[in-house]
Fold:
Amino acid sequence: MAEAPQIPDEAETRARWGGFAWTTENAVKAKEIIGRYPAGRQASASLPLLDLAQRQVGAETKTQGWLPVPVIEFVARELDMPYMRVFEVVTFYTMFNLVPVGRYHVQVCGTTPCMLRGSDDVLAACKNHGLAKGKTTPDGLFTLTEVECLGACTNAPMVQINDDNYEDLDYDSMTAILEALARGETPKPGPQIDRQTSAPEGGPTTLKEMVSENHDYRGEWA
Amino acid sequence: MPKVKVDGVEIEVPAGATVLQACELAGKEIPRFCYHERLSIAGNCRMCLVEVKPGPPKPQASCALPAADNQEIFTTTPMVKHAREGMMEFLLINHPLDCPICDQGGECDLQDQSIAYGRGQSRFQENKRAVTEKYMGPIVKTVMTRCIQCTRCVRFAEEVAGVEEIGAIGRGEDMQITSYLEHAVTSELSGNVVDLCPVGALTSKPYAFEARPWELKKTLTIDVMDAVGTNIRLDSRGRQVLRCLPRINEDVNEEWATDKTRHAVDGLVRRRLDKPYVRRDGKLVPATWEEAFAAIAAVNAGSSVAAVAGDLVDCETMYAAKALVTAMGGSLLEGRQTGMDYDTSSLAAVNFNTTIAGTEEADAILLVGTNLRWEAPLVNTRIRKAIKKGAKVFAIGPEVDLTYRVEWLGNDLSVLGKLPKNVADAFKGAERPIMIVGGAALRSAHGAALKLAKSLKLVRDGWNGFNVVHFSAARMGGLMLGYAQKGGIADVVAGKPKLVFFLGADEVDFSKFDKSFKVYVGHHGDHGAHHADVILPGASYAEKSGTWVNLEGRVQRGERAVFPPGDAREDWTIFRALSEKLGQTLPFDTIEELRADMGRDVPALAKEGLASFEWNPPALSDTAVGTIDAYPIKDFYLTNAICRASPTMQLCSAELLHGDELAEAAE
Structure:
């Protein structure tokens, strides 16, 4: 069933967010963003402005941030666009949250490469840590979402937590990350095993001579 | 002019035509869902696939492909057949098999095209997607599971109606068409999305489950809800009109109709006057025609007689009443019920001279005291088209949302005498400037507007840019027939007629006529009937063949769809019968004879089409003082007796115009 978006009660969100306006800092940023596009093409700024607004809501609520209806309308007014056009954009991109989320939005990739490399274990780690799909934990810390491919298949399985990717996970490292976040620490983003970004595990497998110094391979070409 | 070959036949197509249009010119039918002549090209249903050479060896969406010289187009090859079958199968994957309970059944593009171009059965065995219903207002019923995401409704709302409240949210399989936060769509043209929807996703709410299209008798006639004269088709079953659809007339309504035109028809069976009434001891009691006529004859009015025409009457009715009044020796005829008294010595000065279609060509537009969105919604859509071509719009009057960007010059009429520099410059540089004067300004600024028209040279070779917008269907016809006194209805009051005929006139201030014997000839028990001494039940616009003249002077004739209820009769026959009782027998026994007489009286009414009025503006006082405080139409949905009797229009008014007040009352 394709449900209509389950947005929170309109009257409540209007009461809470009706007076939304940029902070001084964000007002400058918003002006700069709109200035990137030629006059009459402000609609192009809808994505960065919505992101900025979501972050501001996040900062105000100490969460990853979401987009209440009045905030969407505020952005639409900023850009002189009809509300519906901006609402369409918000509903199209999964990165915009239409409902409040926790401080950490845990987005577990469940698409084929990650699944083959053990995303089920990652999800199990989340579940055992009290997270449930589509829900926010009672302490307001975590929201779990299963998402489709986030484009880091080389380092599968992976999760995206707010702005950081945590890669090459297994049950234990995922649990460790969640515990660290719960303690208020910031675990090191990127691969959670001994590996440099998406380079091969355990060091290079090709061009090994190039690791320490420049090497001329040309003589070795057959 | 590229030459293309369609299925081996070479034809020449206009530059800029698409492959689909080329195929149509060649007489080939191309199935389509998202493509619509009057909307932008979306190219998202993929049903119009054809094979094109030269080009990639795959089917091409013909609606979005420009026709080019030496193109060879094939519409009957196996590739095209397979492509259409494939698209049809995809479209039907998530479409429910609920045709038997779907209101679109029988006039459904998807149904017709799946028969013509689809496969016999589906190979899809999974669960179908279902979509929750959306709320779009009192006019549009939604069954969104049936939606095939052609986005015609979204494009209509944005491009034609100018109300960007419908959109597609979500993406992929979860994409859904909805109004913003499921609020009612606040457009007076929302009913058109029902016609545009190629499937049964958007259907008419008031007409839901009323009838099947093949049961209905279709009658071509003219709408009377405003002065645009929308060409309509009334679909009736038995004695009831069940729905009203627009007909295509490029000069008038293109293929749109307002919600009032479409949905006021349910008022035709409510609050009807179906027998004559006579007032006895201050109370209206049912009577026979004989008794009613006798009561009128007993007035013994002599020549002290007048006729006041309402907003909806046809020329035949007005002519018959005029003939009777004249035969009795009277001359007091008036159609402007609310007291307007603008000069009518030259009809061109109160006509929409640019013509409705011509408005599209305008490049500078000045609105003077008109809320065009309510007074003539289908002229408003033409202005939107003109703006798309680059026109600039200025307006004098209280600010309202006209669905487009307007530069408001305040509501002080003296602006007409000294236009701000930017406005004057815009008009100086314009090749086809127009001015549209509405009822709110006509009274005190008619002369000033004419003077401005002269100084701005609005009337030039082959172009007349001076327009007056009326919103009563009877107005132009009435003015042509002489239903206008110099001082307006005040002259009629001053004439102290003993006997006054009110032809469906409901907006008159009846307290001024308390000394007169009031005969109401009309079809709805509204304001006019309450004050009448005798009520003669007449026929509504759906129940008579009549001639109406729209605001641009276009004479149009409509046919009778159903018979009037009970004892009610066609209005002209009432006057013919009454004339005999009053000893002034009118010289026509059939409507043809009446029309011949009317044609002798006003030759322009004899033939359908645009009547021409010579541009000969009267000399009027050209100073305009005062301000426009409000526009004449207070409630778009309740402007005449028929829509006031219509539950759908009452609902629209309550919800779309007074929704906030209702919500407050509920709290």
Summary: Chain A has a mean pLDDT of 91. Strands of chain A lie at 104-109, 142-147, 159-161, 164-167, 190-191.
